[in-house]
Design a protein that fits this description.
Largest sheet: 7 strands, mixed
Number of strands: 19
CATH class of the domain at 340-441: Alpha Beta
Strand order of the largest sheet: 4-3-5-6-7-8-9
Bound molecules: zinc ion
C-alpha cells in the first residue's frame, strides 16, 4: 500500500491550539475543545440575544467533558430563519459579510448568516493549510465557486491559496462549459475546485473532456453531499484524483476535507466541534452508526452556533485513518434528514438513492425529481438533462437506472407507483449555480418525513 501522507489539517490544528512539542494527541485536542466550548457558551450568554434566552437555565453548568454538552438544547435551522439578527454576537458595524440562503423548492423564509472579518480569516487560514494536500507552490488552481464579491467563498479560497504561493483564479460557477474549457486551456491549472454536478458536466462533454485530460491532477468537489457516482465519473474521465470537501455556509463555508486515503473527512476541529446524534431522540450515536451531523462553532464571534442541527446524515468512521491522524473522520454524507419521501407502500425514497442511480447513467448531467398523486396512483417524475442527443436511448437508460433502485422496483411491481421520464432541453449549466437537486413531494397531503 502506498504511503499516505498525514493530513496537513493536523499540524495546523496543533499549532493553532498552542500544542506542546511532539505530536498532537487526541486528549490535548479534547481538552482544548472543552475549554473552547465553555468559552463559546459564555460568549453567547453574554452577547447573543437568542442564546441569552435559550441557555439561561443552563448558565451554571460547566463543560469539562463531551457528555456535559449533551444537556444543552439544539439550535434548529428554523431558529435562524425566524430571527437571524438574534444570533449576532457583535455590533452590526462589525459584520463584514451577510449571506442569504434560500432553500429551493420551498416557501420557507431564507436563512441569513453573518460573519466578522475575523470569522472569515479563520476560513482563509483553513484553506491556506488544508489545500496543501492538493496543490504545489507556483502552480495554479481554477475555482469554479461564487466569487465576484470580495468576501465570497471563491475569494476566501483564493486568499488562502495565495498564502501558499499558489495562484487561485476565481471563475465563478460554470455557466458556459466551453468557456470553462478555454479557461482550463489558458491557465493549465493543476487543480479544479467546483460544484459536483458542474464538474461532472465538464468531465462528460466530449470536447471538453478531451481538452482537459492529462492536465488536471486533482479535483476538489465542494458541497454538503457528493454522490459517489459523480466522483467515479470525474476520476475516470480525466484520470485524476477527486477529493470531497464538506462544508456549508453555517459552518463558515469550510468544514472538512478528505486526505489522500479517501477514507472520510477530517474536520477543522479547532474551529468546529462535531457530534452525530440520533435524529429522533437527540442522543449521541456510537461511532460507526449513522445519525444527524450537529456542530458547535468554537471560534466564531459574528454568529456563534451551539449544537446546530445540519439535517445531514452521516457517521463517524471507527479506527484510525491510514494517514495516521488523531483527527476524527466522518464518512461522506449519505442524505438529508428531510430529503426522503415516503411512498404509498411505506418505503422511503431518498435523494441519495436517486443520485447514485442516475449519475451512473453515462451521459446524464443533472435532474429534478418530483412525486405526485392523482386519485389513488402515485407517479415519480424524473426530468433529466443529458449531453447525448439520442433522446430515445437517453430516456431508456434513465428508466432502466431508476427501475434498478430496489425500493422503486418493489413499488412498480406492487403497482404502487408509475414512472414518468422526461428529457429537459435547456442545459442545466445556465440555471443551476449553487442550487441543489430536489426531490419534491407534490402530493396534496404528502407525507414528507
Ligand atoms: Zn486521513
Amino acid at each position: 500500500m502506498p504511503h499516505i501522507p498525514l493530513t496537513p489539517i493536523e499540524s495546523w490544528i496543533h499549532e493553532k491550539i498552542g500544542g506542546e512539542s511532539g505530536l498532537l494527541t487526541r486528549e490535548a485536542l479534547t481538552r482544548y475543545q472543552m475549554g473552547a466550548l465553555q468559552a463559546t457558551v459564555d460568549f453567547a450568554l453574554k452577547n447573543v440575544p437568542f442564546y441569552q434566552k435559550k441557555l439561561a437555565p443552563f448558565s451554571e453548568k460547566r463543560i469539562t467533558s463531551p457528555s456535559d454538552l449533551l444537556a444543552l438544547p439544539f439550535t434548529e435551522a428554523e431558529d435562524i430563519r425566524r430571527a437571524p439578527l438574534q444570533f449576532i454576537g457583535v455590533s452590526q458595524g462589525e459584520i463584514a459579510r451577510a449571506v442569504t440562503l434560500k432553500t429551493s423548492g420551498t416557501t420557507a423564509s431564507p436563512k441569513r448568516i453573518f460573519f466578522t472579518e475575523e470569522d472569515l480569516e479563520l476560513t482563509v487560514d483553513y484553506f491556506a493549510h488544508a489545500m496543501a494536500d492538493f496543490v504545489t507552490p507556483g502552480r495554479r488552481v481554477l475555482i469554479f465557486m461564487p466569487g465576484p464579491q470580495p468576501e465570497s467563498i471563491g475569494q476566501l479560497i483564493r486568499r488562502g491559496l495565495g498564502r501558499m504561493g499558489v495562484k487561485g483564479i476565481v471563475a465563478g460557477p460554470v455557466t458556459d462549459p466551453s468557456q470553462a474549457a478555454d479557461l482550463i486551456n489558458d491557465h493549465e491549472p493543476e487543480c479544479l475546485i467546483g460544484i459536483p454536478t458542474q464538474m461532472l458536466q465538464l468531465a462528460r462533454r466530449e470536447g471538453i473532456r478531451a481538452r482537459c485530460q492529462e492536465r488536471i491532477k486533482n479535483v476538489i468537489l465542494s458541497a454538503d453531499y457528493v454522490p459517489c457516482a459523480i466522483t467515479r465519473a470525474i476520476e475516470t474521465a480525466w484520470n485524476c484524483s477527486v477529493f470531497n470537501h464538506y462544508g456549508m455556509t453555517e459552518m463558515g463555508y469550510a468544514g472538512g476535507v478528505e486526505c489522500h486515503a479517501g477514507h472520510g473527512y477530517h474536520f477543522r476541529e479547532a474551529d468546529l466541534y462535531i457530534e452525530i446524534i440520533d435524529p429522533a431522540s437527540g442522543d449521541p450515536v456510537q461511532d460507526g452508526e449513522m445519525g444527524e451531523v450537529v456542530f458547535t462553532t468554537l471560534t466564531r464571534k459574528g454568529m456563534p452556533l451551539i449544537r446546530y442541527r445540519t439535517g445531514d446524515l452521516a457517521r463517524f468512521l471507527k479506527g484510525r485513518c491510514p494517514c495516521d491522524t488523531i483527527l476524527k473522520r466522518m464518512a461522506p454524507v449519505s442524505g438529508r434528514r428531510q430529503g426522503a419521501v415516503s411512498l404509498k407502500n411505506g418505503a422511503l425514497l431518498t435523494l441519495a438513492d436517486l443520485d447514485e442511480a442516475l449519475f451512473s447513467v453515462p451521459d446524464l448531467l443533472n435532474y429534478h425529481a418530483k412525486i405526485t398523486r392523482i386519485r389513488e396512483g402515485e407517479t415519480l417524475t424524473i426530468a433529466f438533462f443529458s449531453v447525448s442527443s439520442d433522446r430515445e436511448s437517453n430516456r431508456h437508460a434513465v428508466h432502466e437506472a431508476v427501475s434498478q433502485i430496489q425500493i422503486i422496483q418493489d413499488a412498480l411491481f406492487q403497482g404502487a407507483l408509475t414512472l414518468s421520464i422526461e428529457e429537459e432541453q435547456n442545459a442545466p449549466c445556465a440555471t443551476t449555480g449553487m442550487i441543489k437537486r430536489t426531490l419534491t413531494d407534490q402530493r396534496e397531503s404528502g407525507p414528507l418525513v
